[in-house]
Amino acid sequence: MHDMSDEPQQQPQPGWAPREPQAASAPQGKRRRTGWRRLIPTLRMVLGTFLVGALLLVGGFVLGYTLVKIPPANALATQQANVYLYADGSVIARDGEVNRENVPLAQVSKDAQHAVLAAEDRDFYTESAVDPGAMVRAAWNTATGKGKQSGSTITQQYVKNYYLRQEQTVTRKVKEFFIAIKLDREQSKDKILEGYLNTSYFGRNAYGIQAAAHAYYGIDAAELDPARAAYLAALVNAPSQYDVIAHPENRDAAEARWKYVLDGMVAKGWLSESERAGMKFPVPKPTTVSTGLSGQRGYIVNVVKNHLIENKIVTEEELDAGGFRITTTLHKDKQDAFVDAVNDKLIDRLDKKNRKADAYVRAGGAAVEPETGKVVAMYNGIDYVKQYTPNATRRDYQVGSTFKPFVFTSAVDNKSSTQDGRLITPNTIYDGTNKRPVQGWSGGRYDPENEDQRSYGDITVSEATDKSVNAVYAQMAVDVGSDKVMQTAIDLGLPSSTPELTPSPSIALGVATASPLDMASAYATLANHGEHRPYTLVEKVTHNGENVELPKSRTEQAVSREAADTTTSVLRSVVRQGTATAALGAGRPAAGKTGTAEEDRAAWFAGYTPELATVVAVMAQDPVTGAQKKLYGALGLPRINGGGAPAEIWAQFTRDALGGEPVRDFDLRLMPGADRVDPSRSGSPSGEPSDGADEGEEETPEGEESPAQTPSEDEEEDQGRNEGGDQQGGTGEPTGGDTGGQTTDGGATGGTTGGTDGGTTGGDDGGTGDTGGAGQGGPGGIVPTRRP
Questions:
Q1: CB–CB of 603/629 below 8 Å?
Q2: Cβ contact 602:512 at 8 Å
Q3: How far apart are CA 446 and CA 470, in angstroms?
Q4: 3-state secondary structure at position 127
Q5: What pTM was estimated for this model as a whole?
């Protein structure tokens, strides 16, 4: 078919042929890459990749540096023990789950600082915070399972210890990297080293260089020499394996590490070649001071803690956080002497298998320096982990007749007179008749029994003190004013909150339940001529190396010197010829008073020399129920009294505690008339009982009498202080009928008939409550026998 187009058609020229299409020609001077050459990156590609990588790296660093903050310290790193020390600086105990005591760098010896640097990071002060090469290797090995690796610099290790947990992960190492860099910019090298030394683990449950120094050598970190310091530094690398006591088989490896540390110290110029050459491996102690709370340690920690809190020196929350170093006033030699005396005179004599009462026996005591108020020794119990309650500070046992000296002191201090107007002096005559009704008391009839129902007739105050005559002292309390007596006791040192410390005639018989430490403080005031210094248990307190301010010690003239010294002269007679002759065993001039609580639940001796006031109490308590019990039959004796085991303990302790010190006599300034005999005295010597002792019959010495009645082993005992009609004082409940004559177990015989005084009342070495009965169906009360 022909083309019908009107356009003229170009005719091919002779020899013409169509061409193949051609690619665009390459620029001049460049050749096209072909084959395997195309696999090699060009310079542009390399530069581009490097630039992008660098930007990503810098961006990642900036992002990481920005996002990763320095976190709060981890819980473990901030936990510390509180360290309790004797006055000489030796350790009593450490409390808290973590055995750590932070110290400033200045309290770590230079040798210890250099040893740790030689072991862990010799260029610490000149290098950067991180070692990127070691960091990458550690992260890679950890990620690929080739073993756990740690950071290499001290800064990184400190970050791990203080800010992070101990897990080995890449994430933790990244955080460690950035925190270390930030920390290095914000803290000095010294501060970082200090933190590292306080957070590193050294084995033996010791965190930090200070705890380690004590755990292995029993010294402070400030005392570490090059040899010991090098060993502790070696431990950081392998704390458990390098303890040559626990793992003697690893001694060669431990010594090799020790030598490595010393060589590093020499290389850095921190140790001379000659000193290094003569150094011997310092074998650590197999055992150091126990950080546990067994024995007396737990009691001391408990009592001192309460003392710090009650005196607002440290709060409970602050103590719980730890970090306190508390130097107590306790003397280790005196503390040990107290324990030995209790063991020798009491604990070792117990036979709990064959004597039921022996299982109830407890002891408590405290010793106070009169001139300073410092508590130098305490006895709280056989073992804190077996008997929790600290017996030196408990306030639930009546003090008995150890309270009587406060009545006489108050009489002299207030210049008090008898009902017929005679000034009260040591030679003032009183009627010592058993169950003599007290005169001048508006609260109703009160007629306490003397011990074993003895009547003494006319008797001087001094003799009544020797024999602990209740009739005399109940009357004296009324003559002085029981409210004044109570105030004098408080001024001498008893807390105003002392249970059952109330104004009534029975205050004289010791119904109050003060602690042995309270009583020691009050007796120390008598020994110090009437000047009272509140007792203290702490000498110094620091927190993380910084001193904590202690309350200012204040001295007050609680009573006149004549009042205190005249009381001392009367109490010297008690030791020389009264109920406390066992105290002569101290071998020093001594003054004191015995006491026994109701139903023989506790026996006391409170005494002092010019240098030391000490109170000892033997108590009875059910080890299962905690109820107060009776001491009848304990130690194989019919009963326990203050002139027995308590005075014997006091004598041995005082002799040993003051051993080697010069013997001092009392320097006394007596009240006027203290040496004059009352001219109104008549009749035979009032020391003779008027209840019919046969002529020529030797009277049983005070403190060694047989009880009027000893309870049967099968007799059901009271299970608490306020059960039954035989209760201890101050309960406010009626304890008897409206007439006398009731006999209680243990020979406590009754018979009061009146009034608002009610309650049970005391005999001659203790007392019971005086507030019952009134308005409760009439007067009443059982009047138990009292003993010295």
A1: no
A2: no
A3: 11
A4: coil
A5: 0.70
Question: Residue 156 — pLDDT band, cuts 50, 70, 90?
Answer: confident
Q: Report how far Cα 750 is from the mean position of its chain's Cα atoms.
A: 43
Q: Is 326 in contact with 255 (CB distance < 8 Å)? A: no
In this structure, which long-range contacts are made by residues 339-345, counting pairs with CB atoms below 8 Å and at least 24 apart in sequence? 339/296, 339/379, 340/652, 340/656, 341/649, 341/650, 341/652, 341/653, 341/656, 342/379, 342/649, 344/652, 345/645, 345/648, 345/649, 345/652
CB 687 within 8 A of CB 698: no
| pLDDT tops 70 at residue 384 | yes
CA dist 83 and 540 (Å) reads 12
Phi and psi at residue 715, to the nearest 5°? -70, 135
Ordered DSSP codes for 688-755: S-SS-PPTTPPPPPTT-PPPS-PPPTTSPPPSSTT-SSSPPS---S--S-SS---B-GGG-B-----T
- Please give the Cα distance from 776 to 259 (Å, whole number): 85
Residue 607, both tokens: 């005494």
Given strand 375-379, what is the order of strands in its sheet?
375-379, 361-368, 613-620, 602-608, 591-596
The single-letter code of the amino acid at 558 is A
To which H or E segment does residue 191 belong?
A: helix 189-199
The tokens for 230 are: 């090098």
Q: How far apart are CA 567 and CA 573, in angstroms?
A: 10
- Within 311-460, residue ranges assigned H as helices are 316-321, 332-345, 404-413
Quote the CA–CA distance of 477 and 459 in Å, as a whole number: 16
The pLDDT of residue 528 is above 90? yes
For the CA atoms of 103, 107, 111, 114, what is the dihedral angle to 10 degrees? 50
Amino acid occupying residue 701: P
- What secondary structure letter does DSSP report for 29? T
Task: Assign 3-class secondary structure to 576-615.
Answer: HHCCCHHHHHHCCCCEEEEEECHHHCEEEEEEECCCCEEE
Burial call 264-275: b when 16+ CB within 10 Å, e when fewer: bbbeeebbeeee
**Lowest-confidence region among 75-89, 483-497, 515-529:** 75-89
Strands (DSSP E) found in 444-486: 458-460
Work out the end-to-end distance of the chain between its first and last CA atoms, rounded to an integer number of angstroms.
157
Q: Which two tokens stand for residue 80?
A: 């510390």
Contact predicate 563/424, CB 8 Å = no
DSSP 93-118: EEESSSEE----GGGS-HHHHHHHHH
Burial of 27 (0-12, 13-18, 19+ CB in 10 A): exposed
Q: Which two tokens stand for residue 454?
A: 């003895």
User: What residues have CB less than 8 Å from 749, skipping those under 6 apart?
Assistant: 449, 453, 708, 742, 743, 783, 784, 785
Residue 81 per-residue DSSP state: -
- CB atoms under 10 Å from CB of 600, counted, come to 31
Nearest to 399 by CA among 483, 517, 519: 519
User: Which residue reads 């003051």 in tokens?
Assistant: 658
Half-sphere exposure of 532 (CA within 13 A, CB side): 21
Calpha distance 275→141 (Å, rounded): 40
Instruction: Give the integer Cα–Cα distance in Å for 558 and 488.
Output: 8
Decide the pairing of beta strands 546-547 and 556-557: unpaired
The predicted-structure confidence for 432-477, as pLDDT tens digits, reads as follows 999 999 999 998 899 999 988 999 999 999 999 999 999 999 999 9
Cα dist. 193→76, 106, 114, 202, 700 in Å? 18, 11, 11, 16, 74
Give the Cα separation of 740 and 73 in Å (integer). Answer: 72
